[in-house]
Design brief:
By secondary structure, the protein is an alpha+beta fold. Helix content is 39%, strand content 24%. Helix 6 packs antiparallel against helix 9 and helix 7 packs antiparallel against helix 8.
Length: 356
């Protein structure tokens, strides 16, 4: 036999049902709107807004004042032909080009790093090419900024092309005929005057008509420009403070001398002093945090070794593992540079460990 629910409960149920339908009607369109409008991938986000860039030395974001947005409308779709043996500056200005205002670069290192990246949508497999020239101004005189010979370049200008260093993503529903693209990592390094140098930039490009350029960005800094923040141990801005800790070594050595009242042997003293001198100089010379800290630890271990304190093994091993571990990351594997970096610490470590 069916027993109808009480009227009060029936009214509450209907009220809740009405609220649920109302929320569904409001929330569902909002969800659909957010789903269709929000970027669906990392690449789409990078195309929608320029990603952050960082100064490798300070690990700080490159400020907007050092980032120039280049309008794609300044360029043509015609192929570029630059005679590297001719007057490059005149050739750039003879083509459809974009030229930046003159900017003052303050620096203490006499170097300028330039980074170019650009993104958009392409509906063709043809490649876009962009060339950027750095121009140094000395009064009314203009000259192409010289490249740093330590980082040789094939041309005097930076070359970027979607044929290289470019990420792609097929646009859904285009049957493989349209792609998002993000071209990045094009860098050049130039030598400039210190402490101030007036610099401008000239860009020429060949961008096919089937490209929808979202943005083209030119960034500058006095240190290398990277896309991700660097690990603290690969930075150098605090290294000078760690170097001051070297002043504690004579104090520690003096305290240990008073405690042990001498040395174990002349051989131990000589080897310990040799190790101490090497790692003290290394601590003073190097700048990266992992190098400074690891060499500082091995300097301390050398002091402990001189007085035959058993803790020298633990301290030295800690410093050496730190040096080897971060050097392995920095040099990208066990290559020539890696073994050069750990060679002398390895030899000294073997000598210290097996002399006891």
């Amino acid at each position: 036999m069916y027993i109808p629910p009480p009227k009060a409960k029936s009214k509450d149920f209907l009220r809740l049902k009405a609220i649920a339908y109302a929320l569904l009607i409001i929330v569902l369109p909002c969800c659909l709107f957010l789903y269709t409008c929000a970027p669906k991938s990392k690449l789409e986000k990078q195309i929608a807004q320029t990603p952050e860039l960082f100064d490798q030395s300070s690990n700080q974001e490159i400020p907007d004042s050092q980032q120039l947005l280049i309008p794609a409308s300044a360029f043509s779709s015609e192929a570029l032909h630059i005679d590297n043996q001719g007057d490059i500056l005149a050739q750039f200005r003879a083509l459809p080009h974009w030229e930046s205002p003159i900017m003052q670069v303050q620096n203490d290192f006499g170097q300028l790093f330039m980074h170019l990246d650009f993104a958009g949508i392409q509906n063709t497999r043809k490649d876009a090419e962009i060339y950027v020239l750095a121009v140094c101004h000395l009064g009314s005189h203009q000259t192409i900024c010289p490249s740093n010979s330590a980082f040789p370049q094939e041309q005097a200008y930076l070359t970027a092309s979607t044929n290289d260093l470019t990420e792609y993503q097929t646009i859904g529903g285009s049957a493989g005929k349209s792609w998002y693209y993000y071209a990045k990592g094009y860098t050049a390094q130039y030598l400039i005057s210190t402490p101030v140098q007036d610099v401008s930039f000239i860009a020429v490009a060949s961008i096919p008509q089937q490209y929808q350029s979202k943005w083209i960005r030119l960034s500058t800094a006095t240190h290398p420009i990277v896309h991700t923040q660097t690990s603290y141990f690969f930075q150098s801005h605090h290294s000078k403070y760690y170097k001051f800790l070297l002043l504690l070594l004579p104090i520690i050595a003096g305290i240990m001398f008073l405690h042990y009242q001498g040395f174990e042997s002349t051989q131990v003293l000589a080897l310990g002093i040799l190790s101490l001198i090497f790692f003290t100089l290394s601590t003073y010379i190097w700048d990266m945090h992992y190098l400074v800290i690891s060499c500082l630890l091995m300097s301390l271990a050398s002091v402990f070794y001189i007085y035959s304190n058993g803790y020298f093994r633990l301290i030295y091993l800690l410093g050496f593992l730190m040096l080897a571990g971060f050097a392995l990351q920095f040099y990208g594997g066990m290559n020539k540079d890696f073994f050069i970096k750990i060679g002398m610490p390895t030899l000294l470590g073997v000598a210290l460990f097996f002399s006891k």
